[in-house]
Amino acid sequence: MNWLNSEAFALLGQHIIWSDMIGNILGLVALALGWRRSLLTWPAQFVSGLVLFTAFYGHLTGSAGKQVVVMAVAAYGWWQWQRGKGRGDDGRITVRFATWTERAALAGAAAAGTVAVALLFEAHPSLSWDPWPDAYIFVGTVVAMYAQARGMVEFWLAWLLVDLVGVPLNFANGYAFSGFVYIIYGALVLSGLRDWWLRSRRMSQPTLEGAPA
What we know:
By secondary structure, the chain is mainly α. Helices cover 70% and strands 4% of the residues. It has helices at 18-35, 41-56, 61-84, 100-123, 131-149, 154-172, 176-204; strands at residues 7-11, 14-17. It has a two-stranded antiparallel ribbon with strand order 1-2. Mean pLDDT is 80; it is low at 206-213.
């Protein structure tokens, strides 16, 4: 699979490698499917992680290990959405706002996880090229995927916070394609946030007896 780490093309002086391009395109597709609340979002995320794992395995142990966690969370998301499908009026997963307790738990897990993973990366430099931002993006991604698996609107906000660091970091480290994809992620996140926000508000409003459906 060495071809995954070879150059696909050059753009504006940046060298785009196959794994970076394929993995991020699949991630973009997964996010778009998540906006539509399609169960296929999880296989797309799993395959994206598998492509990046294959590219990193053998020379970037830390990056490969992170993709294993991403694939595990994708499998959990598939299981959760399989259990919950059909509960909405359109036969798809129901979305909702998280409770304040859940929000506090997500924020606490993100903060504690970032510190713990960053310290691990610092203790083992071969695991990461930039410990603190890398830990922030990795933990933020896992938290966002978990919130998505639970059908929480706040998962879009978690992705937005990841994007705010991911875009400049990828450009600064020469991953131009990832940087461009993160910009598109941002536009999809805002659209998806609006859709899930309005949908969850409609679902939370009681239907008056005799009112048209």
